[in-house]
Amino acid sequence: MPPWVRLLLLLCVVGCSGTTKVVRLDTGQGTPIVHTPSRAEPIDWDEDELKAAVTEHVRKVRPVAHPLEHARQLLGVPERSGWFRYEGRSRRLISSEAGSLQNLRLLPADEELNRHYLLWCERTWGPGDCLRLLVDTPVLDGDGKYALAMAIAHGAVLGGMKEEFGRVVSPTAVVATLVGTLTMYAVLLALPEPVSKGVAALMTLGAVAYLGWDTVWRLVDGWLVMMEEVDRATTFREIQASGERLGEVMGTRAARAFVMLATVALGSTTAGMASKLPTLPGAGQAALVAEAQLGIRYTTPALAQVESVALNTSGVSISLAPNAMAMALRPPDAAGPIAHAKSPGFKAFKSMRDFKKEMGSAGAGKNWHHVVEQTQGNLNRFGPEALHNTENVIAIEGEIHVKISAFYSSKQKITGGMVVREWLRTKSYEEQREFGLTTLRRFGVIP
């Protein structure tokens, strides 16, 4: 890898770890919204949850003959290299077509690397070219070596799911396809000023939501180091050692996250992936991280509006479709939306104290109830007047108010096992209001 590429990425990682990163949300209309990420703990889930999610989505993964090329096209990674032959008469390099290298004489080092790679396949996944890295090429090329190191780095997670893969597809075929995708995604983010689009952009947002920005930046640096080491490697043992070091840098949690995201990406269009991300294990917690660190809503409508994600030394720029500003969170000091028609006599207040001073008591045996709850998060996102107004605060029977409060503090199937109140934090004002009205109907407050 050229030294200037390594330098750029190193500056990017160091710069982002030592200064405040920002997120820019841009629709191409007016000044972008600038969001300063707040601290958020990365989420975790157990191995059973991962296996269940991967097993569900792996059914849609179609094994391909050329996994790296397939992944390159899926993720939009630019072509960087190819096979060439030297033509003595013209004294120039001529690009060689795939399949035209059958009689190329291999150097002893190449033969030895191939032999050890095939032995590794036999021990790990079965006889033959298990990662399909020798299709139409006599030796492991640059990307093929990266893929081998990536497979070794993810070996524990992938190996732990061999049985699940075997239930629905050929384990070797699906692993080759997954490793190709993981490799090309790493190559994409290791490019200077990387820009990901479509499925790759959603993989990036998903990675941040599950792992947090600090971990993602650290992994980019880890990928960069691995590629530099593999570029210098001449033996299988050197590639294996680099892959093992990368596995230690990633850790089990990050490896699980990327295997899951790659599996979903392989079986999805961009729109399909936008609809699947909010349904994956831990998505409720991921939504909280996405809100804190990216300033966006981790919902299908919001994710479907993402056109590209660009990493740079100051942070990240997320380009949204035109007119998609509603999909981004408002700055904390912005007035919140009132997403319904205001009735005659509508009044809004800066605090609940001011509301009660103006409106008085809720009545005998009754309590004031907020349709969209007055949590601190909602106050920060939407502003007090969006919550303390005559459309959002209604008087209901005290006994029913207690039952509704208990419901909001419970865990429900619809929330994926999260407490209802915490689950609602990830939703837009309009979604929270609709849920609140549905709850009032459920408890017989309104028809």
From TrEMBL:
It comes from the Bacteria. This is Lipoprotein.
